[in-house]
Amino acid sequence: MNTNICCEKVMQDEKGGGHVKEKKIHSLNMKSSITSMERELSQKSPVKKPTLTKRKTCFQKPRRKTHGQVKKYPEIQDDLNMDNNNEETDGVQESIFSENNIPPSSIVTEIVNNVNNVLLKNASGDKESKYLFDFGFKNIKDDMKTLIKQCVNKEDTIISLEGRLKDTEQNYSDLKKRCHHLEQKNEKMSKSLDETTKTLENTLQELTAANAFAEKAKQLKKSENNNMSNLEKRIGHLIAENEKLKSQVNTLDIGSKNDLLINEKKMEELVESNKLLTRQKAELREVVIKQMQLASNLRRQVLHLKAGLAQKFTEEGAMKIIEEFY
Fold first, then answer.
1. Which regions of the chain does DSSP assign to beta strands (E)?
2. Which among 62, 9, 61, 4 has a CA at the least distance from the CA of 29?
3. DSSP state of 63
4. Between 154 and which of 7, 39, 48, 269 could a Cys-Cys bridge form, CB atoms 3.0 to 4.6 Å apart?
5. pLDDT tens sequence across 140-199
6. Alpha-carbon Rg of the chain, whole angstroms?
7. 238 backbone dihedrals φ, ψ, rounded to 5°
8. Nearest Cα to 284, choosing from 220, 215, 216, 219?
């Protein structure tokens, strides 16, 4: 005898925009037993009219007062037999529930009602068919017990799955909130990153400008150093010429005042040129000193900018690590 039952339940999240689907399929396959009973009944002689004489069962109710009148009307007798069969199957159902300590449910009652309907349709009143009916009913009763146990186990699994589904929904909502929080945090970090990149670009532009200015100052300093060396060489030559002239004046015998005046004028011109050269040298030194100070200030500013950028990135990294940790 093939008896199968299939219980299926599918649920999806309502908060996430899904649909809730609940599907219960109950099927009983007892065709083999019913067909075998029908074949045996068809091979026998025509079915006699049922009588009220039947075996007493633990579920049978007392006889009705209209027993005498029923013999006159066979149609009423058939209805009474059907009522007694219904009462017997109801009692069997109650006994199955009480023996197995199983609470009746909609699934079980549906199964039992289907079995009762099949049995009552194929039942007849003669002894042979009654024996077949009792034999088949006993087998069906055992199968019903196993089916009811399976249904209860399936219902327990459904309840556990519903609990797991609720836990999953709670975890999903928590993860959704956490993802929303992380998205907001990511947006804030992206905004701060954009601002930092903008400041970094501005700082890099300033740094490139400062580097260009420093290169120009280096080139100017180099040219001024070359000029200073040339001036020093020229001053040295002039001093040497002055010494030569002094030695010539001391050695030569000046015979006339014109020569003396000419020599004095030359000396004055040389002295003035010497003063002019010394003044230019002092001015060039001051300019070189100022440019060196400016270059040192620029270097100091570049170092301050680099240190400020490094400190800013380290502070942001530390804050990011602290936020991720907490």
1. none
2. 4
3. P
4. 7
5. 778 888 888 888 888 888 998 998 999 999 999 999 999 999 999 888 888 888 888 888
6. 59
7. -65, -40
8. 220
Work out the angle between the directed axes of helices 74-100 and 106-122 (0-180°, nearest 10).
140
Q: Residue type at 13? A: D
Global pTM exceeds 0.85: no
| pLDDT > 60? residue 254 | no
Q: How far is CA 120 from CA 28, 29, 58, 91, 136, in A?
A: 16, 17, 19, 15, 12
Write the pLDDT tens digit of every residue in 266-324. Answer: 888 888 888 888 888 888 888 888 888 888 888 888 888 777 777 776 767 667 766 76
The three-class DSSP label of residue 183 is helix
Helical (H) or strand (E) element with 232? helix 127-251
Return d(Cα 119, Cα 133) in angstroms, integer: 8
